[in-house]
Amino acid sequence: MSIDETLFKKLSGIDSVSGDERAISLALKSEYESLADSIVYDNLGSIFAVKKSKKADAPRVMIVGHMDESGFILKGINGNGTIRALALGNIEATSLLGASVKLKTRNDKTFIGTLLAHDKSGSVLDQSNEVLVDFGFENKEEVLENNLAFGDRLSFTSQNRVSSNGKRIYCKNWDGRYAPLMGIEVMRAIKDQEFDFDLYVGCTVQEQVGFRGIQTATNLVKPDLGIVLDTNKAFDYQMDLKEKNGELGKGMLINFYDTTVLPNRLLLTTLKNICIKHNLPHQYYYSMEGSDAAWINKLRTGTPTLFVNVPIRNMNTPSSIMDIRDYEAAKKALLLFLNSLTVQNIQEFKEENR
């Protein structure tokens, strides 16, 4: 496996539903400490490892993705002991009946439960974006005795494994673990290198609930160039497809459009040419959803922004799927891109639309 399996298991086993990312932040901090000159935070909890240039007034390059995952937040306790919880993130409703979820109380006691249907049709997520959970309690009093409280987060239980052919990894939170894993592996690879720019590599909070952390993080870093690490839905196996968009095993994604940002064309061309020159598998992709990239791109005076993404099947479900070959292509392309960066071409990216 081309991914550090020990690191993957460590990160993917940590729960980080939006607004409760402290545990994954602490894990990142422990990795960053030996790889960075310093570590910085914004006041929402986003974290960055900083690798400083020896040049004065160096431009800033920001490599970032989110570390929160979809899940639920406790909002009510029924008399029969079941729990009502609101969904946080764009969770696929059809994946939920019978799904196993975990809640950790504020005194670190853990409970495992199951999502129930609201009605005979098997509907789990109702019109209020609410789910019903059975943790085995018989009544409301028992729930309160165990210190479950409004605002507690519920995550999917871990279901991580590698396919029998070693090519794909199943993970309950790929959408919130791709960036942390990639960021650490990139920092390890460039540990002894020096650049003409200050490099900020890190992760943001609260992406699943409205791209919140990226706004404060961008104002913290003040980047001259942004690189977003994210996942996109794979449309490559569904029976009703008009076209395939994001195929597992066909390489990293060259994202040329989403509903909130039009990526810098010179950046896209540069990334594509790197992939062609070094024979790295890649594929064009467009998304009909938004992304963190929009905020990097349009905050302050604007920042040229590039995606380095991979396709994921079953995104925002209890078990999502990534192809290791796509991840490896993305990592190699990102490292080659970093090594090609100079003060001059960073400025050229900024001037592309003038």
UniProtKB/TrEMBL annotation:
Database matches in Pfam families: Peptidase_M42 (PF05343)
**Protein family membership:** Belongs to the peptidase M42 family.
What name does UniProt use for this protein? M42 family peptidase
List keywords of the entry alphabetically.
Answer: Aminopeptidase, Hydrolase, Metal-binding, Protease
UniProt KW 4Fe-4S keyword: no
Organism of origin? Candidatus Enterococcus murrayae
